[in-house]
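Bumping with the actual sequence this time:
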Amino acid sequence: MERNENMAVVPYFSQWESRELVPDFLSGRMLPADDPLWHLSGASNREEYATWSAHICGMACLKMLLAHRQKQIIPTIELMKQCREYGGYVENGDGTIKGLFYRPFVSFVADKFGLAAEVKEHTPIEEIGELLDQGHVFFASVHPSIRTPEVTPPRQGGHLVYVFGGNAQTWEVVFHNPSGDTPASQENVRLSLEVFARFYAGRGVLIKPSQ
């Protein structure tokens, strides 16, 4: 597994526009509505940004992928609105948000961006590691506490990270985490497969190489 040639050039985007303020958003010291860069998200107003910014890790992963492969940068909430039209997100009457739903997302990225994607379930990270060699990337479902890999997560899954590389000699994966709260936990994060597997739910969306 070796994709080091691409690692330095994969752009990073947080699911919040001000990546340096993520610790404050996560701790509650600052409200997402007060993000000074909220308008870059594609949201219509601060309230819409505050509602959605905690739910768009998948759109941040997609933003990174599109910036890397297609050299286009599309705001995260603009991507969310397009994906929502396909059923990728559902807003319930009580104000809760469900998603990202993988199969509608696969249809969305195929139609809008010509990306060949596949839902993976019950798939060990070792198997994904082998596919990285072939130019695939993976939106992996992990527990959000992966930003602090020394902890034991209460469960697996619930958050998406963008896995794009690995190293065969050290048997690592390399990924960008849209909800990382420090530079080291945000981009080019390296974890052993063993550690990654503690957070990984065995599912996600595999994006095939560009044709």
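The tokens above came from a reply further down the thread. The first helix runs from residue 4 to 7.
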